[in-house]
Amino acid sequence: MSLDGSVKLTDGGGLAADLIISGGGVAAKYNVYLSENAVKLHFRSTDRGRGELAARLLKLTGVSAEAKRRGDGGGWYVVASTVVLAAAREELRKALAVIIKTALAGAWWTPDRRGDGWRSWRGSGGVGG
After folding, report:
1. Three-state SS for 82?
2. Domain-by-domain residue ranges, the chain?
3. Which of 21, 28, 74, 121 shows the smallest number of beta carbons within 10 Å?
C-alpha cells in the first residue's frame, strides 16, 4: 500500500487523500475521505472490470467490499467505511492511521474540527492503538 503523501481539504470541508492498494501485479487508486467521525474509502470507474478488481483488492486486505453499479448507469463504485476498515489487516489500518495523523497535524485541521471519532485512530498501532 502506498500513499501519495498529501492530505487535502475538500470543497465540503472534509479531508481527502489518495491510497494505492496493489497485489499480484495490479493496483487500484482509492480516495480516502475523512469527515468529523468517519473514514470512507472510495473507488470509482466507468469500467466494470476495474471496479471488480478494486473490490477484490480490498477483500485481500480483509475488508468486505463489492463493486456496485451507479444508479445513473455512469459507472461502478466501491465504498468501505470506518467499521469495515477497522477490521482490515494491520497494513491497511496503519496506512489509514498515517493519513489521519497527517490530517491531525495539519494547521488547517483545528481542534474544534476534530471529532471524538478520530481518537481511536491516533495510536501507533492503528485502530484503537
Report:
1. helix
2. 2-106
3. 74
Kindly provide the b/e burial profile for residues 109-129, where b requires at least 16 CB atoms within 10 angstroms of the residue's own CB.
Answer: beeeeeeeebebbeeeebbee
CA 104 to chain centre: 16
Q: Please tell me the distance from the alpha carbon of residue 28 to that of residue 124, in angstroms, as a whole number.
A: 26
State the first-to-last Cα distance of the chain, in angstroms, to the nearest integer.
20
* Strand ranges, E, within 1-129: 2-9, 15-23, 26-35, 38-45, 68-69, 76-81
Average pLDDT, the chain: 79
Cell of 52: 471488480
Q: What is the pLDDT of residues 101-123, one digit of tens each?
A: 887 776 555 555 554 444 444 43
